Amino acid sequence: MKYLLKMVLPGFVLLLAGCSAFVDVAAPPQLTGEEYVFSSDETAEQSVRGLYSKMGQQDNFSDCMFSLLLSLMSDDLVSTAASPTRDVFQNNSLLPGNTMVTNNFWRKGYEYIYHANACLQGLQNSTGVSAARNKQLTGEMHLMRAFLYYHMVNLFGGVPLQTGIDYAVNKELPRASEKEVWDLIIADAVAATQELGSYVAGDVKTRPCKEAALAFLSRVQLYRQHWQQAIDAATKVINSRMYVIEENLSGVFLTTSKEVIWQLGFNSEIPMIMQATTYIPASALLRPQLTATASLMAAFEAGDMRQKTWLRTVIVGGKNYYYPFKYISRAIPNITEKICFMRLAEVYLNRAEAYLHLGNITAAVADVNLIRKRANLPALPDTISAASLEKTIANERRVEMMFEWGHRWYDLKRTSQANAVLGKEKGSYWQPSDQLLPIPDEEIQLNPNLVQNPGYQ
């Protein structure tokens, strides 16, 4: 943690570093860094945009690599060639000194959390930012902090709960309980739903709106098994009628997608989607570096258009290799695609699962059938048993959300299926303690109040 804080402590003006127009602007001598950064709507806006700019770079917490590594840890993706970096994730054999976990998950996560905290503090103390803009930007940062802690708690379990930017406090924080982290996530997400304005047709989707916060809240409430709250949040998104299921599967991840609720915009330095260059072979004669597992391929029902559209196949050496094909543009700059944070298909699946747990089979079936119809699959009957519907929803989540933000990895854990599924998939490599990543050794050495996760001592 000391490493991170040394990197970000020099001043609030660094919050602008992601926005080139402000890099060389110094605070007037009569103002402190915080006072200057939040002295007007314009400077506050640039500070908040700085976080999105950071996340739009190829730094592995928020780009293709994040989804890639978590897919390797689950049962969706496999590497076709030996790679020391990837193999330890695929074989669930990580050690506390792993540099990817240390630098790209833990430290990047807390760097972004620090940025969100600094913005929240600056906005709270500001007298120069208009009330309307302050409320909107505060909502954005509450949602971003919730989003970041959501990933941290799913990756590591209970983590230090930093809500301020005081180095003396943050450097010695112990791990909070998982419940405490989830409570903050929900509180921040709820606050964001109250602070953010509703989406207006024509608005950019790279900035979150009220419906984005509600969509995320539906996911979080589902994870916490707050079934009615998950339904309520999802229903508000659906009833807004601002989003519809994109009938054309090839259009789901485009900037023009009617389904996307919230996208990640890339800054000018990294103007491309890394998914295409990582997953798609440069030539039809080359074997893909990463391919779908046999179990993922078996999860597709006959005729499922998601298999035909979101996967591609190449034959090398007489063998079929299926590789991800959700993001396909190699163009520089890529103006047609953006990484998706939240989309309507997930919201329907969140609500369907919550309906199921409350015994409303008819409503759950209706939501699932909307997703199946788009995939060209037959409708489920209302007479389906609860047990069969539960398996179907889990499978729909898998094939619909494959290779996106670790959904499969997180779903296996939250539904207590990880040991059964991954024990079979990974064999002797799998241990129950593999469900959490190790706390980085370097962080424990810097903060003796941190306790290592079981299985990594």
Automatic annotation (TrEMBL):
Keyword check for Membrane: yes
Localization (cell): Cell outer membrane
RagB/SusD domain location: 321-456
Record-linked Pfam families: SusD-like_3 (PF14322), SusD_RagB (PF07980)
Residue ranges of domain SusD-like N-terminal in the record: 100-222
Signal peptide region: 1-26
Cellular component terms (Gene Ontology): cell outer membrane
InterPro entries reported for this sequence: SusD-like_N, SusD_RagB_dom, TPR-like_helical_dom_sf
Family, per entry: Belongs to the SusD family.
Record-given protein name: RagB/SusD family nutrient uptake outer membrane protein
